[in-house]
């Protein structure tokens, strides 16, 4: 049995695992406390406490004089738990699952966030303490429909720095950036509609669009932005309702939209019903702000979204969207219908953290560390014949082509067996044309084991192509 948690938690986990695998069916008598103690090498008092806690959860029931019995209906058969998770198909959610389910010993150069020690810990803790000392309604009440006025005012000022003119009344706070996109999809799409995405793009866009039962069409993404000719052909052939892209720093390529491509793109969509959604989650990582479609468009057909999970905290969930006033009205109604009030506590903590006197200096340091790591990791990868498609001016991602003959999914599986989570290219590609690419997070590549494990996997993957 895995030795994770307290002894009592270990016993409880052992029983839960037996229930999940159907070794313990409903009505089955659990081993007596003495038997279980002997089987697991625990004390009788430890097993008694574990059984009592399971009974308090309703998972087992105590029968005086007869012992403890499994309670409830048959658990759904979890096929993934019956075999190694290494065999899961490398789909758009593969990287998310592997990164989120891994333990602290696992290295995660394929994940999409900063290491905990890179985050603004002091500011978050100060915000938590201040919130705890504040009025009770800040800890217990729902947020207003639009969300915290103070945070919306701050966001309007921050967007103005990227050229987007917006009033606080055009900003609606959400539980996350993902929820913001989900609300837009609910608001504007119906099953069967077509949505354009960058190819490659953030893999969760694929999963979210699939959940909305719409057709996703990929447009090749270049170092200057989407391929305008492909975009025009897709616009004419599919009459898409949405185009979802990144603002500023592109995920996964690290590229930035050029003013020329932005201008040509907006000219193309004039007269169409297309709405553009810009995900601006990486704004604080930029050294200089790249063009925003929302700035050129004035939020007429562009919706700006973002969140703070990459720069403040992924545990304090808060996102936002900015749109034209008549859309905001409908989006607020939709948010109320699906989630009622957003988290006021999270909004207040985010506001306090962003306005902390140390946040700006902290992000200056983060940008410096990322730039240093970007060059260092790019050099290390080139020694393994892993070539970055470009070296971005800012951000955390390197989009890299593997040596000839290497399949990114196979390399990722091999590395996972040694405790290293990578991000295979086809997880990001609608056309499945990135089978020899990996995305690397340079902030998560400090451990030398990343490169040692990758080297072994690449040697194995290209063994049959050497000398050709």
Automatic annotation (TrEMBL):
Protein name: PLP-dependent aminotransferase family protein
Positions of the HTH gntR-type domain: 5-73
Annotated keywords: Aminotransferase, DNA-binding, Pyridoxal phosphate, Transcription, Transcription regulation, Transferase
Gene3D superfamilies: Aspartate Aminotransferase, domain 1 (3.90.1150.10), Type I PLP-dependent aspartate aminotransferase-like (Major domain) (3.40.640.10), Winged helix-like DNA-binding domain superfamily/Winged helix DNA-binding domain (1.10.10.10)
SMART domains: HTH_GNTR
One protein family per Pfam: Aminotran_1_2
MF (Gene Ontology): transaminase activity
Transferase recorded as keyword: yes
InterPro entries, per database record: Aminotransferase_I/II_large (IPR004839), HTH_trans_reg/aminotransferase (IPR051446), PyrdxlP-dep_Trfase (IPR015424), PyrdxlP-dep_Trfase_major (IPR015421), PyrdxlP-dep_Trfase_small (IPR015422), Tscrpt_reg_HTH_GntR (IPR000524), WH-like_DNA-bd_sf (IPR036388), WH_DNA-bd_sf (IPR036390)
Lineage of producing organism: Bacteria, Pseudomonadati, Pseudomonadota, Betaproteobacteria, Burkholderiales
Family as reported in the entry's similarity comment: In the C-terminal section; belongs to the class-I pyridoxal-phosphate-dependent aminotransferase family.
């Amino acid at each position: 049995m895995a030795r994770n948690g307290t002894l009592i938690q270990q016993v409880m986990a052992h029983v839960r695992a037996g229930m999940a695998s159907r070794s313990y069916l409903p009505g089955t008598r659990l081993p007596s406390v003495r038997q279980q103690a002997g089987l697991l090498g625990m004390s009788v008092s430890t097993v008694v406490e574990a059984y009592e806690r399971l009974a308090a959860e309703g998972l087992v029931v105590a029968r005086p004089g007869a012992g403890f019995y499994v309670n409830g209906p048959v658990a759904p058969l979890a096929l993934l738990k019956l075999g190694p998770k290494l065999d899961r198909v490398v789909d758009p959610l593969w990287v998310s699952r592997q990164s989120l389910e891994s333990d602290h010993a696992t290295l995660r150069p394929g994940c999409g966030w900063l290491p905990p020690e890179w985050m603004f810990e002091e500011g978050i803790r100060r915000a938590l303490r201040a919130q705890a000392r504040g009025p009770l309604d800040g800890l217990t009440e729902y947020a207003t429909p639009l969300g915290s006025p103070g945070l919306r005012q701050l966001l309007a000022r921050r967007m103005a720095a990227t050229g987007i003119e917006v009033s606080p009344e055009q900003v609606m706070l959400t539980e996350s950036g993902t929820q913001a996109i989900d609300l837009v999809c609910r608001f504007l799409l119906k099953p069967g509609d077509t949505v354009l995405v960058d190819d490659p793009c953030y893999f969760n866009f694929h999963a979210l669009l699939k959940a909305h039962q719409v057709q996703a069409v990929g447009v090749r993404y270049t170092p200057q932005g989407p391929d305008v000719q492909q975009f025009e052909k897709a616009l004419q052939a599919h009459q898409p309702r949405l185009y979802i892209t990144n603002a500023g720093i592109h995920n996964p390529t690290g590229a930035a939209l050029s003013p020329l491509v932005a201008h040509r793109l907006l000219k193309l969509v004039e007269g169409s019903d297309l709405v553009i959604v810009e995900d601006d989650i990486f704004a604080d990582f930029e050294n200089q702000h790249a063009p925003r479609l929302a700035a050129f468009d004035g939020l007429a057909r562009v919706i700006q979204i973002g969140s703070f999970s990459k720069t403040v905290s992924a545990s304090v969930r808060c996102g936002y969207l900015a749109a034209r006033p008549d859309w905001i009205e409908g989006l607020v109604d939709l948010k109320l219908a699906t989630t009622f009030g957003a988290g006021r506590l999270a909004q207040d903590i985010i506001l306090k953290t962003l306005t902390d006197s140390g946040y700006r200096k902290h992000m200056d340091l983060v940008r410096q560390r990322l730039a240093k790591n970007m060059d260092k990791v790019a050099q290390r990868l080139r020694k393994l014949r892993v070539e970055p498609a470009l070296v971005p001016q800012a951000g955390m991602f390197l989009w890299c082509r593997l040596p000839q003959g290497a399949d990114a999914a196979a390399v990722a599986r091999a590395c996972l067996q040694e405790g290293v989570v990578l991000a295979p290219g086809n997880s990001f590609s609608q056309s499945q044309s990135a089978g020899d690419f990996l995305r690397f997070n340079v902030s998560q590549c400090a451990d030398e084991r990343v490169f040692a494990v990758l080297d072994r996997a690449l040697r194995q993957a290209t063994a049959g192509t050497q000398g050709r």
